[in-house]
Request: fold
Amino acid sequence: MPAVAPRSGEAIFSSAERVNAELFTLTYGAIVRQLITDLEEVDEVNKQLDQMGYNIGVRLIDEFLAKSNVSRCVDFKETAEVIAKVGFKMFLGVSATVTNWDAEGTTCSLVLEDNPLVDFVELPDTCQGLHYCNVLNGVVRGALEMVSTCYLMLVLSSCHIIILV
Amino acid sequence: MQFFGTTEINPSPPAVTASGNNAHMMYIFNRNGVCLLYREWNRSLHTLDAQQDQKLMFGLLFSLKSLTAKMDPVSADKVNLGVPQLPGQGCSFHSFRTNTYKLSFMETPSGIKLILVTNPRTGDLRESLKYIYNLYVEYVVKNPLYTPGTPIKYELFNSTLDQYVRGLG
Reply:
């Protein structure tokens, strides 16, 4: 039996059932808004968003693996590429660019040029510390935790993720 | 993205080569060795209690995988015998056959292990196991009531699995 080639993020995204992008963006905005009302502190909101993302990521990884036929990545560079090109493309419909590698190859940034989560969003001055898309941070963290043992932490601003190994 | 739409499994199931009730039992383990699912269809003999049986199966896979990786003449990076391997690390076997049964095995990079024990005459079941993994994703992982790492007790998943496995050649 020939090995099944990994499917591209584009192919999976176009075959999957999708939800309206504006509905998705506004729903996410409503969740963040509600969290700010409930928790009051931006740090708490960041933490909560990360936790929510983590819980998503832990499950999402199985769907990702089942649909993409990706096998184990050999190194961190490949992992970052797969997250950026296949993972984001498959679930968000946009792909990220991997940049800012450090000398040892243990830190990189994933930059989303076109982040669907931040459409229509303007942060007021009171929310400057808020990592609006921290949920993505959590998703990547949760998913990576299920497939590897050596990663450290990700930091994220509105469309910028940094991964350290 | 899928919210409450009908569940459509993608890709569609591999073609069934023969029909008949060939499967004996199925196990699903997670990366921590917890048995998420045990189903049996055709098992006349129970020599151990269920928990011991699952432990034995997990131990068998663990050792066999370790041995097959150790014997690998191709790949250079090896770990010592008995040292746990990460899921997907090193080489791995997909099935073995005895005179009375065949065991097919699949491990995903996330550490989910799917084991299907069938009649020794059954053919290659790798595609079928992949399809069962898809079933697991659709009916278990996407179920919001399911807590990851706990045993699966969902009628819909069980009946879909039963139905699919019954058709296996």
Q: What stands out?
A: Residues 9-164 of chain A form a domain with the Muramoyl-pentapeptide Carboxypeptidase; domain 2 fold (CATH 3.30.1380.20).
